[in-house]
Amino acid sequence: MLDQIRTMLTTKLDVLMRLLETSNPTMYNLYMLAKAQDRCSRAVDLTIAATVADGATTTIHSSAAYDENTFYTIQK
User: Fold this and answer.
1) Is 43 exposed, middle or buried (0-12, 13-18, 19+ CB in 10 A)?
2) What pLDDT, in 10s, does the model give residues 53-73?
3) Which of 3, 9, 16, 18 is deepest in the core (most CB within 10 A)?
4) What pLDDT does residue 23 have?
5) How far apart are CA 76 and CA 62, in angstroms?
């Protein structure tokens, strides 16, 4: 059944969503992000894994330049 769903997404919904890539890029990017989620609800292309104690403030990522396309998710 999962293979059928994956095939449907690839052959039907992905094609439809490509229409939004230029007309509604936010929706398209959110769709692609949702597809990148695996069974553990973490991004497939994990960039950083860090543990921060409750109540603490810690820098876990820094960048030399701002990139408006960087998207962060935080799991607890």
Assistant:
1) middle
2) 888 888 777 777 777 776 666
3) 9
4) 92
5) 20
